[in-house]
Amino acid sequence: MKFRNTIMALAVSAAASFGPAYGQTADGQSVGAAIERVATKLAGRIGFAAQEIGSDEVIAFNGDETFAMASTYKVAIAAAVLDRVDKGELSLDQMVEVTPDMMMIGDAALSDTFVHPGLQLSVANLIEIMITESDNTATDISMGLAGGPAAVTEYLRRLGITDFRVDRTTGEIIGEFYGLPGPATMKVAMEAFVTRPELMTIMGDRNLDFEADPRDHATPLAMLQLLLAIDSGTATSAESRDFLLDVMSRTRTGAARLKGLLPRGTPVAHKTGTIGGVANDVGYITLPDGRRFAVAVFTKSSETSEADRDRAIAEVARSLFDYFHVGQMAKQ
After folding, report:
1. What does the pLDDT look like over 38-94, one tens digit per residue?
2. How many CB atoms are closer than 10 A to CB 328?
3. Under a CB-based contact definition with an 8 Å cutoff, are residues 278 and 67 in contact?
4. Which domains does the chain have, with CATH numbers?
5. Residue 246: CA atoms inside 13 Å, Cβ hemisphere, count?
6. How far apart are CA 141 and CA 129, in angstroms?
7. pLDDT of residue 204
């Protein structure tokens, strides 16, 4: 509570003079640095960027540093699929067959539920379960619908987003994390876990070699750019934007991250990401007066517990919530 009181005090003092983007005024830097001092004790290296919708004011810390996105990159995949829907190349009610050999490990709502052949899902439901449950099978099918990783990256470049790259499917990412002989399908993974049972224990361990790989990385500011482009209707049509934000509002993962310390009932539309020493959360938070801000919080190189990493993200979100809320009251 003492930490958040400090942020609120800084918000009041900074509100009248907070100027250029990316928190480059002394006051803006003070707010970002105050958040970073507490958060890094809980989660190793942290970076974040936030901007109130409709404003030019941005707070960022380590905003230009790249981080492994983990499953937060699924926001970009969803937007790229919806871009194809907008162009008439796909439709949300189009049915897609999901065969047993497509099933992936990791976040695996589909493979845990459907063990028999005969499953079909609409494009809309693939996006739904990719975002709300972070399902990896739905993600890799959606990646294919988007045209593959290179097509998603090219889509981001068309939006003017450069510090954001999509290189692999989730099956490939997890397969390389574990050192599997191929993408992390259920079949490949189960065979590996039988011969190497120690693999079952390393998913939550820090992996610095994995983090150093530049593939599937973004900066907090680049992820913020994507969130703002989605919200403004630049990334997709207004109809597709509304669909995606509605889906993100139903996310069931990461209750202790962006949402963790916010007032009960605060609307949050978000997407989490977790692998090794990486814990992330990105999305949109609504303030009590109806204003909203977009926020991206990335962490890496953490040796703390998952609960501590979640708490670090929650501290960032609550502090920014107080900053934007109290700062606006100070202006009035």
Report:
1. 777 787 889 999 999 999 988 998 999 999 999 999 999 999 999 999 999 999 999
2. 17
3. yes
4. 2-71+215-331 (3.40.710.10), 74-149+168-211 (no CATH)
5. 8
6. 11
7. 60
**Residues 300 and 292: beta-carbon distance below 8 Å:** no
Q: State both tokens at 55.
A: 């404003």
For residue 147, what are the contacts with CB-CB under 8 A and spacing of at least 6? 80, 84
Which of 317, 229, 219, 234 has its CA nearest to residue 270? 317
- Six-digit token pair at 147? 């045209």
Contact 15, 331 (CB under 8 A): yes
> Which residue reads 């449950």 in tokens?
133
pLDDT of residue 32: 65
- String of DSSP letters for 150-192: HHHHHHHHHTT--SB---S-HHHHHHHHHT-SSS-BHHHHHHH
3-state SS, residue 279: strand
Q: How far is CA 169 from the centre of its chain?
A: 16
**DSSP designation for 79:** H
Bridge partner list, 137: none
**pLDDT at 253 exceeding the cut of 50:** yes
Q: Are strands 95-98 and 278-286 parallel, antiparallel or unpaired?
A: unpaired
Least Cα distance to 109 among 73, 136, 128, 127 occurs for 136
Quick one: residue 177, left, alpha or beta (phi over 0 = left, psi -120 to 50 = alpha)? alpha
What pLDDT score was predicted for residue 248?
Answer: 98
